[in-house]
Amino acid sequence: MTSPEAVKLTHSLWYPEVECAIQLRRIGDKLNFRQKLVNLISKLLRSGT
């Protein structure tokens, strides 16, 4: 039985587009989280005025 890490490594080596897609998804997730955080902070600050 192969471990998930071994499968990921194999896909990364043989399919660089898979690794690229994974990295782009992570970047997008981080940006989405930051935008949601900024929206929440701005909403909290605007509600006080």
UniProtKB/TrEMBL annotation:
GO terms for cellular component: mitochondrion. InterPro entries: Noxa. It holds the Pfam family PMAIP1. One of its GO terms (biological process) is DNA damage response. This is Phorbol-12-myristate-13-acetate-induced protein 1. It comes from Muntiacus muntjak (Barking deer).
